[in-house]
Amino acid sequence: IVPAHGRLDDAHADAHAVFVVRAPDGKYVTVREGGDGALLLDASADAALDALAFELAPCAAPGGAPTHPLGGRTFKLLNVYDAGAGPENAFVGRAADGGRLRAAYHEGDAMPLTLLPVEGRPHEYVLRGGAPAAYVSFADDGGWLHARYERRRDAMSVRLHLRTSNNAGTCRGDQFLLSNEFKPSKYAGKWISFSSNGNWLRCTYDRESDAMSVMLFPA
């Protein structure tokens, strides 16, 4: 399976992933019309541009809705929580010292985070930072979030809660609240937000109204 770079048009710009299939002999899978009018697949195309493109979409739950619609995608997170002076409009980034996360950066300095699905737990993801790969989790002392963990099993699982506006209604559009779902933990079920001193992220908040609202920008 080979990524089909350049095979998306404007109507499919938000497709999850598009691939072509290449056989061991280097030929690509394409489609041809059989003698009875049926469409047949065979590995006969010499170039990827002549191959049949497939879109891989998220698996659906029994009810038909995707369980992890954002799985495998990479985003920068914009904090749009309104503490009284309008939306914060600051991106989440990683401090060089210790890998602590804070919502205090311009987009160019933000840390891209890849959302990796947690199997069997709809809308829950593990967050992985960029190069070098660093998983996100929290410190036992204070619940401060860091992107510094090397192993996925040490990462926290985060549930994304879709909303259409921030806490004050001053920013509209699809955005998410984040809750910590790592168990067992004294911070399990707590909301993720930012401190008033330095905008450092932590997962210690009890009330949904205190949770940070984030908008996702593809990275």
Describe this entry's structure for a reader.
The protein has two domains: 2-55, no CATH class; 74-218, Trefoil (Acidic Fibroblast Growth Factor, subunit A), CATH 2.80.10.50. The two termini are 23 Å apart. The chain has no helices and 17 strands. It has 219 residues and is mostly beta strands. It is elongated, with a radius of gyration of 21 Å. β15 and β16 form a beta hairpin. This is Expressed protein.
Helix-strand sequence:
EEEEEEEEEEEEEEEEE
| Rg over C-alpha atoms, rounded to the nearest angstrom | 21 Å
CATH architecture of the largest domain: Trefoil
**How would you classify the quaternary structure?**
single chain
Note the total helix count. 0
Number of strands: 17
Distance between the termini: 23 Å
Organism: Aureococcus anophagefferens
Protein name: Expressed protein
Structural topology:
Blueprint: E1 2-3, E2 18-20, E3 28-33, E4 39-45, E5 54-55, E6 74-79, E7 90-94, E8 101-105, E9 113-117, E10 124-128, E11 135-138, E12 145-149, E13 157-165, E14 172-180, E15 191-194, E16 201-205, E17 213-218
Antiparallel strand pairs: 1-2, 2-5, 3-4, 6-7, 6-9, 6-17, 7-8, 9-10, 10-13, 11-12, 13-14, 14-17, 15-16
Summary, kept brief:
The protein is an all-beta fold and 219 residues long. The protein is built from no helices and 17 strands. This is Expressed protein.
List keywords for this structure.
six-stranded antiparallel barrel; Trefoil (Acidic Fibroblast Growth Factor, subunit A); 219 residues; 17 strands; mainly beta; 40% strand; Expressed protein; single chain; three-stranded antiparallel sheet
